[in-house]
Amino acid sequence: MGRVAEKRPKALTFIRQKGEISRGDLAAELSLDKKTVSNLVEELFAESLIASAGFRDSIAGRRQELLTLNGSHSNFIGIDLGGTHIIGILADLNGRSLDRVFFEIRPGLAVEIILDQMKTICRKLMESKQASAPVRAIGICAPGFIDSATGTSIVAENIPGWQDVHLRDIFQKEFNRPVHAEDSSRAYALAEKWLGDGRGREDFLLTDLGYGIGMAIIVNGLLLRGAGNKSGEIGHTIVAPDGPLCSCGNHGCLEAVASGRAIARDAAAGIHAGRSGLLKGLTHGRAESVTAQDVAIAASMGDVFSTELLRAAGNLAGLALANAVNIINPSLLILGGGLIGTNRTMEECVARALATHCMKGIFKDLELRVSRLGIDGSALGCGILAAAEVLGPA
Ligand SMILES: [Zn+2]
After folding, report:
1. Which among 108, 260, 310, 352 could disulfide-bond with 292, CB atoms 3.0 to 4.6 Å apart, if both were Cys?
2. What's the gap in Å between 22 CA and the centre of ligand 1?
3. Protein fold of 74-192+377-391
């Protein structure tokens, strides 16, 4: 590979991160001479990957052309399969959302139906009127273990029967585009790195508190994958050894006591036991249909039982997160997922538990933020993952 080809992904990343830069900035960043940078820039212009963003005067008084990434070069689709929803995003080359499709799904749906719904979302976005360019590639994420090299979703404990689903093959065949697959929390963290509070951060944790609970660990600017590509399973760290059975087969995992799924289970039991008239009303008496979202709404309306459920879940999530923070010593912890943002009870309890259980010296290095990307984080990350098809590995 030539020197220019080698520097190309780095150059594109730098231009995207900075927004607008001159050829001189690029030469300095990539440690390249002017001539080589000039050739590289001409190549990127010829492919319409970059565009001119006007001129500025340099200190020496010479006019410098500013270069920017051409977001409309190509579009990408990101699909996030969650425990209670599927979200599809149409994104441009900058990772910015152009269009969005949201489908709610009932837990326990058959694998074939879920795949059909994912395809329907993909098709809708392919035909979107908001598109600024043809769709070049698709990114998909699912919870649980993913073999990103083969694009296979190995297992998602929260989806009955979901095993060895060859996402890449299925969607590549259906849509005739390159397909990338990744774990949901990792896709989320990628979106935070590009568009959210992870920008410019080398060491951060992203936790996805939703129907399941996951984590992505960024250390020295890189995603920590682990020996078998399965790192970040904070949802299956034990916080209550005598606690309820988890989908993984162990007892008292964080996910078995503090996930959206666990909250819904406890809420249903509470409705049966007559502990919340409000929740009963919200679910029209069908206790089994209660969701963590209902609990958050009831808590916001002052329901004591629902508030207790969220507090207990938040305290245990905070405990597990404090353990992770003590091990990794990140500069930032981003709280994301469906349980965060609807009702502040969970995040307040998490914040308090972190302050209590983290080592003081480590806690002082930590900044806690609620994700600004919200539940779209993973889908946005999938779109960004797909953009690697054009930008190359960053
Ligand atoms: Zn477990």
Report:
1. 260
2. 51
3. Nucleotidyltransferase; domain 5 (3.30.420)
